[in-house]
Amino acid sequence: MRAILLMTLAVGIIGACAVPGEDNGIDLELALPQHFPDPIAPLSNRLTPESAELGRHLFYDLRLSGNGTLACASCHQQEYAFADSLAVSLGASGGEGVLNAPSLANVIYAYPLTWAHGSVTTIEEQLLGPMFGEQPLEMGMAGFEDEIAGRLAIDARYRELFADAFPGEEISVKLVRFALASFVRSLVSYQSAFDRFLAGDSVAISQSAQRGSELFYSERLGCSHCHAGFAFSAAVQSLATNSQPTSPFHNIGLYNVDGEGGYPSAAQGLIEESGFAKDMGRFRVPSLRNVALTAPYGHDGSVATLDDFIRIYEEGGRNVEAGSNQGDGRNNPWRSDDLKVFELSDAERDDLIAFLESLTDSSFVMDSRFADPW
């Protein structure tokens, strides 16, 4: 079974790495297992040990927010695989966002990079939203660029870190963004119990988890059609550079507020970028690595547990029976054709959850290289 799973995980990644002989912008050693492709970083912002270390300091620093109250790590916490435990995170002003903070594990491979914007394909570009966006306001850095650079420049540690990472350049918010991108690219997670099982440790996961993996990869459930390959997501760089088994965006029938497939106005998915009706409720497929640590689930954090989410998939959507978002998502006309309706016994559901829990990388969430340096 391990051989079959390795072949399944490898589908779409062969030839998807950097072109042989081409400099891919990575000068940081990333020891990866055989079922992971080589990642790619832009030449315009080389991933170096020095830039990643500077980015780590910045990631945990409250001084980056306009009012000095919020750090990147406030919404992306290591113990939750660099997600958080809230449905939606709070910005520097205390206001709620509209989307669930996704895990940053393996974001070096992510393509595209946001819940519902197919055009955002680099981390440097994605960071503009949380840093400077105002609807919703997250870090609240807009208008404070010079002040923030000044806060950092008076710190002797930062003067040394910036000089090491970007020799000869003045401290600026642009370099802050580049260093944060480097640190985020360094957050590679690949040492789960399931990875050890694939590497030949037959007792790394339980018999229940092994049965769950067989369910996950079965045509009966079809989970691996969307949660594909080494990252357990179709929304990855290596798949995007070749033929993808499925779109990185899907409507899974969470809502149907108007009886015509509508989603709540706060977050309607890819339609907000494309304007096409068919994109209503379509959001990026998240990776399932470390998924047991990242509850609550869904683009808006409205699904509390893995058991709840599996039951939604079983029914082909969610029937919201009360409140302002009332409607039967099972009848959403825009629900993805790739989703199958199936039925599980309680024992099978437990096995599937055991498999998902085996994707947790405990070493990743305790790795001192990624921890708060302050």
**Structural class given helices, strands, pairing?**
mainly alpha
Bulk shape: globular
Largest sheet: 2 strands, antiparallel
The strands making up the biggest β-sheet line up spatially as 1-2
Mean of all residue-level pLDDT scores: 92
Q: Which CATH architecture of the largest domain is right? A: Orthogonal Bundle
Q: Which fold does the CATH topology of the largest domain refer to?
A: Cytochrome Bc1 Complex, Chain D, domain 2
Q: Provide the CATH superfamily of the largest domain.
A: Cytochrome c-like domain
Sketch the topology as an H/E string, one letter per element: HHHHHHHHHHHHEHEHEEHH
Q: What is the count of DSSP helices, taking H or I runs of 4+ residues? A: 16
CATH class of the largest domain: Mainly Alpha
Layout: helices, strands, pairs:
Layout: H1 2-10, H2 49-59, H3 72-75, H4 123-126, H5 128-132, H6 145-153, H7 156-165, H8 173-185, H9 193-198, H10 207-216, H11 223-226, H12 237-240, E1 249-250, H13 271-274, E2 283-284, H14 306-315, E3 319-320, E4 327-328, H15 346-357, H16 362-365
Helix pairs in contact: 2-7, 2-8, 10-15
